[in-house]
Amino acid sequence: MPDAPGLELIRGEIERDNPGAVLATSFDREQPALIVDPSRLLEVLRWLRDEPGQAYRFLASLHAADYLPAEPRFGVHYELLNRDRRERLRVKAMLADPGEEMLPEIDSCVELFPTAEAQEREVFDFFGIVFRGHPNLTRILMPDDYVGWPQRRDFPVGGEPVTFTYSERNYG
Amino acid sequence: MEVERRSFKARQASARQMLRGDLEGEDLERYVEERVVTTTFEKMLNLARANSIFPLTFGLACCAIEAPISIVTARYDLARFGAEALRASPRQADLIILSGRVSIKMAPVVRRLYDQMLEPKWAISMGACSSSGGMFANYAVVQGADKFMPIDLHIPGCPPRPEAVMYGFTKLQRKIMGNPDPGWRTRYDALGTEEWARGGPRSEPSREAAEAYERARELSLA
């Protein structure tokens, strides 16, 4: 793991090659994270993968989160791993909610990490985040005719109300 | 005439004599009492059906460990009830055990399997999840498998013990044999204490619950 000064060094090097791509850093609970500009995400990922001193060549996980009251609302997280040094680095891209009937968009990183193909489909399936340039962006776990983005925080929980009529009538 | 322990050939011979009218009076009465059972064809057929059920080799989730796997092993041994032959094809099976949660993506598949089974066929909904959705009150799980297919028997539990599954299975056998055994509400004179989720007599869900239900319904219909 890069420690907090190491994270700032990485940020400085990215700032040298791609000025303005990294918006902020975070070192919460010993976990380093770079918060990047969503429109320049691919530059950062490519730099981290190809720069000889970094070589985060493995995308361990790609997932999203919905921080609903916060703004920007959606976060797409890329968990990078360097298997030689056993170092992990998180890259976050925060996306604003474009409003009703619109879906947030971000560049697909399938060209950099082929393993992201299924994971980007899953994020699209559950959060409705569109990955520009994805080869086959369809639903992967929910049925194809499903309507809605079920892991968003404003999605209704579902289920059915159960009313205990006898108990309510007699003891309620 | 003696009609006690005799060989098969001798019994055949005496039956022939009976047809000729040789067996009369008290002898005939005793013979009928000892040798003849009268029943209806339907009862005989149902007896045969109930004791030769072929369950479908089919598991949905964690309940599958208990139902189709555990109860056919030596410790529980469903073969005692004539149901040890698990069939891998729905065309050869006459019982489907829904063992686990049914997701909305799996529901059409389950319905199709059920439709492929030949009549007469039965369905057991095993465990809380397939009976009511269980703890999975969310977007992905069908809230009760009887929403999309007929269910003969619900076995409660999470998961039910194999003993519970066997008890349910014997209940199903009794149902097949025409003795559905309505359960404790009848035995203890407690009819009218049933509770309904919706649609029962005087079942009024709370306003918030009704609104949530309508919202979820609109979303699922959209």
Q: Summary?
A:
The complex is a heterodimer of chains A (172) and B (222). Chain A is of the alpha/beta class.
SSE layout:
The complex is a heterodimer of chains A (172) and B (222).
Chain A: H1 4-17, E1 22-28, E2 31-36, H2 41-50, E3 58-66, E4 74-82, E5 87-95, E6 105-107, H3 116-127, E7 130-132, H4 165-171
Parallel strand pairs in A: 2-5, 6-7
Antiparallel strand pairs in A: 1-2, 3-4, 4-5
Chain B: H1 8-20, H2 25-35, H3 41-50, H4 63-70, E1 95-99, H5 107-116, E2 122-126, H6 127-132, E3 153-155, H7 162-176, H8 184-187, H9 207-221
Parallel strand pairs in B: 1-2, 2-3
Report the count of strand segments of chain A: 7
Number of strands of chain B: 3
Mean pLDDT of chain A: 86
Order of helices and strands of chain B: HHHHEHEHEHHH
Oligomer: heterodimer
**Percent helix range of chain B:** 40-55%
**Low-pLDDT residue intervals, each spanning 5 or more residues of chain B:** none
The arrangement of helices and strands of chain A along the chain is HEEHEEEEHEH
Distance between the termini of chain B: 81 Å
Structural class of chain B: mainly alpha
Rg of chain A over CA atoms, rounded to whole Å, is: 20 Å
Structure, described:
Chain A has 172 residues and is of the alpha/beta class. Chain A has a five-stranded mixed β-sheet with strand order 1-2-5-4-3. A two-stranded parallel sheet of chain A has the order 6-7. In chain A, strand 1 and strand 2 form a beta hairpin. In chain A, 25% of the residues lie in helices and 27% in strands. The mean pLDDT of chain A is 86. Chain B has a three-stranded parallel β-sheet. Classes of the chains: A alpha/beta (172), B mainly alpha (222). At the A-B interface, helix 4 of A face helix 9 of B.
